[in-house]
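# nightly structure sweep
# worker-07 picked up a monomer target from the shared queue
# config: single-sequence mode, recycle default, output format = structure tokens
# input follows
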Amino acid sequence: MTDFLTALKSQPLLADGAMGSYLFELTGRLSEPNHVYEAFNIEQPGLIEKVHLAYLNVGAQCLVTNTFGANRAKLGEYGWDRRVAEVNRAGVGVARRAISQFQAQSRAAGPFFVLGSIGPTPQELTDRPALEVCYREQIEALIEGGADALIFETFSSLE
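# output follows
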């Protein structure tokens, strides 16, 4: 995290674009029980790496992981609630591999960073214990996986 904050204080950093929109463009399908975007970190990592590489090739320095809906409540809708940590660690791993591949091919020095994406739950959670149960595993897995920072996206409730 220190390297990320140091870089952020010294220069603007360009982050990538919308993962879900790009995956929809590539696959033509929205997330559904047999096609969960976050599960692609495990089942189709090459597809996620392709998206990351596309963003790196146009100048992104920060890759946002494919973990937007990788919390217990959201993954539970698709039967993936027992794999929350695995999905999140894999999301960081595929972003790191894309950065390594990009640097090897382009000889770009960086800096490059991985931002762990955390999105809202299907139903608003305002009870602190419920929030902790839902998000603790995801946050810990993103940190253990090596995310440089966390990004909380599109929450409609400040609670």
